[in-house]
Amino acid sequence: MAGQRERGPEEQVARVPAARAVLSGLLRGEEAAIRIETCVRHQVNKMQGNKGFNMEKQNHAPRKQHQQHPPPAIPANGQQNNSQNEGLTIDLKNFRKPGEKTFTQRSRLFVGNLPPDITEEEMRKLFEKYGKAGEVFIHKDKGFGFIRLETRTLAEIAKVELDNMPLRGKQLRVRFACHSASLTVRNLPQFVSNELLEEAFSVFGQVERAVVIVDDRGRSSGKGIVEFSGKPAARKALDRCSDGSFLLTTFPRPVTVEPMDQYDDEEGLPEKLVIKNQQYHKEREQPPRFAQPGSFEYEYAMRWKALIEMEKQQQEQVDRNIKEAREKLEMEMEAARHEHQVMLMRQDLMRRQEELRRMEELHNQEVQKRKQLELRQEEERRRREEEMRRQQEEMMRRQQEGFKGNFPDAREPPDMRMGQMGMGGTIGMNNRGAMGGTNVPAAAPPATGPGAMIPDGAMGMTPPPPADRFGQGGAMEGLGAMGGNPPAFNRGNPGGDFGPNKRRRY
Question: Which of 60, 111, 136, 171 is surrounded by the most beta carbons within 10 Å?
């Protein structure tokens, strides 16, 4: 029972017509067919999960002998039943590799021998089970067209199934279209990867695919392939790299770019496509054979071999010369690079020293400016302190002078002070009436004589002395002159206002 369950997927593969057509591609391409078979088996396993009950009945039933059934006939319009298309259209995500770009030039197919009355809608229906078509072009006059599918794997499946398919009396010819926007890159450095190559050439336009070609050991061969999405980007990259030197790494060896030669190493040239003209029949008169020694064919065959050997030797010599020249150039380049790095380091050192010197000069200038500013601030502070000190001294001097003016000087004798006070009082009392109507100079000299020693107001408080006692009126002449009165005491002057003639008693 377990053995029958294991052989169940094989029976399903045999019963799916689309899978039968896919597995027939094993004779044409081993790698593509293995990938297609894996995808189909995955689809069949998913179908088994959805139909578990029916599969259990098949597993318990007696197993029939596996027989090869011929593929079903395809209608003239190139369409199949929906039940037959379900085998490959269940989940198209399984035919997409991780990170693979969709609708690229690599998934573009050339379809030849198309009927002249085919339409774009019929072309899309013909490739309907292989996913959505991104581009459809038909040249009805010449009978060919192009169609772009989602992925390369789907395009391979469509190519295997639809190639040589009859359609309205013609056999379709399905091939991969030539990639007209692909370039070959040579002289790649050793450590350039696919990602770096794609990143480098993405400056010219959108890159669909970038691959570094390696040998059987996985080492870089120095060659790569870059495929752009359009011809303008490829032309731009070709022109820019031809005019300038495009470097990918620090190794100063520029890459060379040239259009990629398109070769078909999968289909080749089948017999049915060879033009059968007169030259063809002449060349095919004799079958493949070895030339007999001594014959005409043998002589010229040996001469051809000698020419080929000479070409090979010359090519090897040219390769050796180029290799030696490359090694010599690399050695010179390494020496020059070392000298260049030393020169750059020396220049960088000189530049840093110059910057350091300039920074020191700027620092010194800043220090000098700071010192000058501090000196000016110190001088200004001293000047303000000196000004404040002078102002304080001036204020103190004025205060002292005001104090002296309000109070008598203690150093003068008492009798002098009393005399000055008496003189002032006498003058004020005797001239009170006279000064009201006359102008008296403010700077009149004080009176001298015996009366100067009398305190101010004493003359009003005590009766004047008798006239016989002051026979000489020289001392009072000044008073009379100032008041405009005759000399002598103004005893009976009605204009005088003297206080009471009594002495106060305290």
Answer: 111
